[in-house]
């Protein structure tokens, strides 16, 4: 069984979310305000300390103004074909 919390896919997800937020010219605080959460939650998501589910990804992408499919394409490219759960 592979540990996925620090996997290439998880790192790619964090990287893609950070880049999307920065491209939207949003700070973590501004994104947190849009999501009605604490800035520390955004920091934990972006650092990989807190994992998000699919629904949370969509909500975050909407708040940023990016397409979740673009984020998932970035993650898909980073996950090795032979990666197992």
From TrEMBL:
| One Pfam family named in its UniProt record | HTH_3
The HTH cro/C1-type domain is annotated at: 17-71
**Which SUPFAM superfamilies does the record associate with it?**
lambda repressor-like DNA-binding domains
Q: Which domain of life is it from?
A: Bacteria
Any single GO molecular-function term of the entry would be: DNA binding
- Family annotation (InterPro entries): Cro/C1-type_HTH, Lambda_DNA-bd_dom_sf
Q: What is this protein called?
A: XRE family transcriptional regulator
